[in-house]
Amino acid sequence: MSTETVITDTATAPRAALAATAAETECILHALADILDGITDEQANAPTPCTQYAVADLRAHVVGWAVAFGAGLQAADGRAADPITVPIMGSGSAQVRGAGAAIVAGIASGGGDRDLILADGAGMPGAMALAMILWEYQVHGWDLAVATAQPWSPGAEALSDSIAFAEQMLTPDFQGVGKAFGPRVAVPTDAPALDRLLALSGRDPRWAAPLP
């Protein structure tokens, strides 16, 4: 997960809009939890489109960060847990579902109005963090789903929101060869929304797991 602060209009999102985004995020995390439950032991070392991670590594990454984000958005001081220290319990699905509930509760208690402070001390407005979580978990959900031959179909509203966010966030400072996000991938302008979000995020929607 990127810890860089990028100032966008998400920093001052209205409370109702934040609640809607939190609900979308919880839905995505529940869908991701189903993916985690569907991963077999034999798939643990399989590659993913997120090239620095195999399946088991990416599972640990998304679970640890989900727990950290949920804790940070709920905390009165906005301080998130260290994702590296989060133990993965079983498939991690219960932790991810719990993180979804924590994010909704945190936003309801004002988490979008205060800064989220990560374990390394980096911070960002809570509203921005929420938009980032929705975006990145749609992409990482696809990473794990396609790597393990499972379906992944986020809702239209979540995709639309994250496409708009990614278009603002992914400036040349953050995206390109050797940067946090790979170069954008060309897709038709009328491509499905998920394909457009993936391509914006430096993923090739045509990626397929290597044949055994």
Describe this structure in words.
This protein has helices at residues 15-37, 55-74, 93-108, 126-147, 156-169, 193-200, and strands spanning 115-117, 123-125. The chain is mainly alpha-helical. The protein has a two-stranded antiparallel sheet. Strand 1 and strand 2 form a beta hairpin. Helix 2 runs antiparallel to helix 4. The longest helix has 23 residues, at 15-37. The protein is globular. Mean pLDDT is 92; it is low at 1-9.
Summarize model confidence as the mean pLDDT.
92
Spatial extent as radius of gyration: 16 Å
Topology as H/E string?
HHHEEHHH
N-end to C-end Cα span:
30 Å
Percent helix, as a range, is: 40-55%
Largest sheet: 2 strands, antiparallel
Number of helices in the DSSP assignment: 6
Q: What structural class is derived from the secondary structure elements?
A: mainly alpha
| Unreliable parts | 1-9
Q: Please give the order of strands in the largest beta sheet.
A: 1-2
- Gross morphology is globular
Instruction: Please give the number of β-strands.
Output: 2
What topology emerges from the helices and strands here?
Layout: H1 15-37, H2 55-74, H3 93-108, E1 115-117, E2 123-125, H4 126-147, H5 156-169, H6 193-200
Antiparallel strand pairs: 1-2
